[in-house]
Amino acid sequence: MTETGVQAGSSPAASPPVHYAPTWAADGDTRQRPPLVGDEREILTGYLEWHRATFELKCSGLPADRLSERSVPPSGMSLHGLIRHLAGVERWWFHIQFAGEKAPMLHYSDEDPDQDFDDLSGDPAQALALWREQCEHSRDIVAAAPSLDATGIHAASGDPVSLRRVLVHLIAEYAQHNGHADLLRERIDGATGN
Questions:
Q1: What mean pLDDT comes out for the span 33-43?
Q2: d(Cα 161, Cα 158) in Å, to the nearest integer?
């Protein structure tokens, strides 16, 4: 594919162009594209930052009460729930498992494992601020790690888990939930984007 979305060697008539520009308000899209070249850490962290910024963009510009709408029934998901969930994911993977911090879980307990999506009490703006704090702390952890081979302890198995594996997992987690967020946002106000 070329920059226009047309395969090299094919005519535009044979393959309609694919448009990659976001349909969000151009002024609101401040995402930095992931690097095309770089070492493994630069590529992985670049993609994770892209997905974090994409998620924040999908949550931006809505009144707080609309973030809590469960707009794609029968799913119980909402943007507010996704904010809470991803804050917990950041803490669980980077802070607790990789860095070994003794921090309480966010929006989760064995008795109530789905509270991140089910309990939408509280201010969505505060949930978003907490998510941002968790992301910033995760960035600090990644920056301090000597290499992607550095390990923490995978809680479910007790086995070592590398920073490389954690980064790949978080990229996949955000990619999945950005798809959910896109559907939720489209149902709320018609906004779509990539």
A1: 95
A2: 9
